[in-house]
Amino acid sequence: MEKTTIVSVVLFMTTVMHGESKQCVQNDECSCTFDDGSGKVDLSMLGSKSTSIIRDIFAPDNYAYSFNPCYPFSEGTCANAAGCQIDTARSIYYNIGDSKKVDFSFDGSNVVGAYTAHDGARKSQVTYICDPSASSPTFTVMGETKQSFYEFRISSKYACPDGGSGPGPGPGPIITVSVSISVGWVLTILFLSGTSLYLIAGLLVNKIYRHNSGRELLPNISFWISFPGLVKDGCLFVVGLVRGRGGYGKV
């Protein structure tokens, strides 16, 4: 039985219950592992061991900010910090997150790190956005979005499960497209492709090498002119055989 063309689109949507239950279970201050087996996010390759990956970047609130995941850094009076807010006008530094006081979670699309200052007075939230193509991190510093609460966004391949070698953590639809083409369609495609190649090659040969013009550009023009008559003769011959009148007449 000839197959018909079938296009099946299978959509897998994560249920609300599953989306809420999926977590990135914290291993240490640098990593967490998804409890559904989809992989581990390890930020140790993202953080700097000597400085901060975000350094003195101004936010809309007119304060400068520095931030570094995993490894503590010091700047001004910010000692062993994950995040630091700088009042450049008065040279005052505020610790806005301790690298040892971090809790990782999963918001349904990205891993989120919540950092608390050593005195508990300030907190920073960093959204780690999975971007498999981002070998070098890109970031957005939003600054103090509400009192004593600071936000950052960092895009990196190291925010992806297994450093970008695994699938992204987002729960979006998985779309699988399966196409099955019938034998008839395959033959039609081959015929059209062969005809196109024949015409193009013939036109080029007649134009470039034979210097033909007009309808003589068409390959084997004499054959194609007589082709309808040949088809007619063939049909009459077959009809004659069916009706018992024999084949072609004797000369």
Net shape:
elongated
Question: Can you tell me the residue ranges where pLDDT is under 50 for at least 5 consecutive residues?
Answer: 1-19, 171-179
CATH fold type of the largest domain: Cation-dependent Mannose-6-phosphate Receptor, Chain A
Terminal residue distance? 47 Å
Q: How many E strands?
A: 15
How many structural domains are formed by the residues?
2
- What order do the SSEs take from the amino end to the carboxyl end, as H and E? EHEEEEEEEEEEEEEEHH
Instruction: Characterize the biggest β-sheet.
Output: 5 strands, antiparallel
Number of helices: 3
Assign the structural class, choosing from mainly alpha, mainly beta, alpha/beta, alpha+beta, or little secondary structure. alpha+beta
Instruction: Specify the helix fraction band.
Output: 10-25%
**What percent strand?**
35-45%
Relevant CATH superfamily of the largest domain: Mannose-6-phosphate receptor binding domain
Radius of gyration: 35 Å
- In quaternary terms, these chains amount to single chain
CATH class of the largest domain, named Mainly Beta
Mean pLDDT, as a whole number? Answer: 82
